[in-house]
Amino acid sequence: MSEDQVVPVEETKLKATIEDKLFLVKYKPDKESHIVVDQEKFKADKQKAVLYICPAKVYELNEETGECMVAFENCLECGTCRVACMEYVEWKYPKGGFGVQYRFG
Amino acid sequence: MSEEEKFDCIVVGAGPAGLSAALTLVKAGVEVAVLERGEYPGSKNVMGGILFTPVLDKLLPEFWKSAPVERFVTHRRYSVLSKEGEAAFDFKTAAYGEPDYNNSWTVLRAKFDRWFADQVEEAGAMIIPGMMVSELLVKDGRVTGVKTEPGGDELNCDVVICCEGANSFLAEQVGLRKPHDPKHLAVAVKEVIGLPQDEIESRFHLNGNEGCAYEIFGQAVQGTFGSGFLYTNKESISIGVGSTIHDMKRHELNPNDVLEGFKKHPAIAPLVKGGESLEYAAHMIPEGGYSHMPKLTMSGLILTGDAAGFVNASHYHEGSNLAMASGVHAAETVIAAKEKGDFSEATLSGYRDKLENSFVFKDLKKFQKFSGFLNDNPHLLRDYPDSIIGLLTDYFRISEKPKAQIEKDVIAKFRREIGIINFAKDMYKMWRATR
Q: What is the mean pLDDT of residues B151-176?
């Protein structure tokens, strides 16, 4: 990026990427995951919609193993993965008191 | 609590439905515990940001004097976006600026629900946060209590009012509902963007504490079956997009990418410019409507709110108000059941009669074909906005071309791209779908 393309400070306060936006979200992470992916069924699925449809990009493909990695601690608890990919995603609520803590909602 | 002890009623979830139910119950002297999985009520609760309040105003008269409401809505705007343009219907009136403020408020649910829960607790209900109900206890075909996490404790009661929200695991567990259909659930993402109060008021043409509600279709959500929204809070705006999971999946869209496309649209970018992102949230909305409702009751159990699919997914985008109304009706049903000492399905099915007589079912029925109609006619939200804005762009283009020729060309283009008969048919079908 050249000098004249540097984004002004006040513009950067408006976040665009999921990574930047997740920094704004408060969590109380559990040690155990509340999400289980059936890796064999995931590998067999062509569309692998869970990789793009999750609003928090919790699911990421491990290129080497072909498995689905799950960053459960970033979950925004909408449940979309469970509806979109019920064949291989087992999603439930985190235990009481854990998970996302919306301040605005 | 010992095994013999039990509550009259357990409410699962401290959202608008659960809190309305609990308040109605304690006012009638019914012993109630509200179990909330969040660390505090409101911490898991998300909506676009407009709360319709006719039910709330009956439960807590003149709530706006002490509740953390943001702005009363005096300005409604519906528009469609093409890639470059916007065509809008815009309505505002100062008549909504006096009590009862047209029962329309912008709120931030984490703050609002927390306050609502405090009022319900003060009235005598027990609210237990940090407790997630993992399953319903069922014995001989009737619900007898709940099992909670963490801890695995079992709590017994005469009846459970289930206000667990859109995911509705418990309704599924006992077979009141089938697994969700991606066509009937929307995923919505939202950002709260901070802006100075006077900047919001000048940017959105608001006098004092007035607020506005924009609902935006077409390219707002890349032509999918859904919409974008933008609501003004006191010192922030709530902006977001939502579409059916079916469409998001089919078009391989990420909800945040859709939101970013919306924020960068030339009609929207100036409204969020210079703001500070404060929070990002995601939520599901059940949009199947009346024709895809679950079974609502069984012995010892009543479903309410999003768990029952009570969302008016027409242009009204109304959910929380229906949730509150259903919570009240569920509580009234439980009060009557307690008097009879009978919590069987036969008694609890009185809940359905109450809903039939209220705006909840009347409105859901009115729009029951609407969602299916849009699912079956994707061109309406995908193609019409582009065509309409294209026609307007030609119509308003200034050149030396005589106006009579412009009109002729625009009409010819309309016939070519849409067709008068097709247009008339679509309008007729749309009218039929709301009858």
A: 97
